Please model this.
Amino acid sequence: MSDVQYAEPDNLAGVFDALERYGEEARLLAGGTGLVNLMKQRLVQPGALIGLRRIEALRGVSRQDGALRLGAMATHREVETSEVVRAAAPLLAETYRQVATVRIRNVATVGGGLAHADPSQDPPVALVVLRARVVLTSKDGTREIPIEEFFTDYYETAIAPDEVLTQVLVPPQPAQAGAVYLKFLPRTADDYATVAVAALVELAADGETCRDARIALGAVGSTVLQATAAAAALRGQRPTPEALREAAEQVRALVDPVDDYRGSAAYKRDMAVVFTRRALEQALARARDGAR
Ligand SMILES: Cc1cc2nc3c(=O)[nH]c(=O)nc-3n(C[C@H](O)[C@H](O)[C@H](O)COP(=O)(O)OP(=O)(O)OC[C@H]3O[C@@H](n4cnc5c(N)ncnc54)[C@H](O)[C@@H]3O)c2cc1C
Model:
């Protein structure tokens, strides 16, 4: 790591200049919790690091035109503890709280976490269920993409080499909906998930019919997976225990886990079904209680 150049601009124009100057050699540095580990393992060997911590425009969590705006350099801990987030999208605060340890959450950032794109990470699962949008900026302008199009493969994203992830926009949770994030951790409390599920269930005005259901899973594929068939099976139906069980069963064919030290593929497939059912049950209970 001795020959790495380091730049730390205080505005985005400086970042774009540095990206151009260092070209393919460059990597952006946010909290460093993911990138520095990869560098230590020599899986990534950048010639230049461009630090983002001095850029005010990338900071903070706020409401913007009705949506939540998470600045790319907002830390996981900021999202977890933000009253603005808890009011608009409690699922998000609940999910960020389950990432690793408080030491990691104090340093790891929203943008760095998404750009890292490890399919076992927690926040992407909830952000897919909440229909978040990712804002990518280059010196030529800004584009906004749905988060499910952002993750393209294992550790791969739609970020172009000249782009910076600048913010994430999250619509508020619907008022009649309950949502939950379940992280299955059979080993230690600060591990990555063996299987993770986020579910949102919205009830119609009659309080008995499911108006909308959304389900996403982490750690069981090369990117976060949306269980669209399972969710569609519940829309317009009465969410009876049997209906939830049948919907959850549909994720068995969707997931594509690998054998590793967190469990065999067959075990993870079974757990994906179990945790989807539990997530749907808990989201429905919250919707009925008005607990969100
Ligand atoms: C021991 C440990 C346990 C962990 N456990 C979990 C866990 O259980 N669940 C979980 O979800 N996460 C977990 N994490 C955190 C996670 O995996 C990443 O390390 C973290 O989210 C990366 O954030 P960062 O700000 O440190 O990014 P960095 O490490 O600084 O950067 C990560 C990548 O993103 C790029 N990047 C950074 N910012 C931007 C930007 N604004 N625009 C474009 N590209 C950018 C970098 O170039 C790099 O490629 C854990 C981390 C550690 C070290």
Notes: The pocket of flavin-adenine dinucleotide is lined by residues 27-35, 37, 52, 72, 99-100, 104, 108-109, 111-113, 115-116, 118, 121-123, 159, 164-165, 192 (CB under 6 Å). The chain has a mean pLDDT of 96.
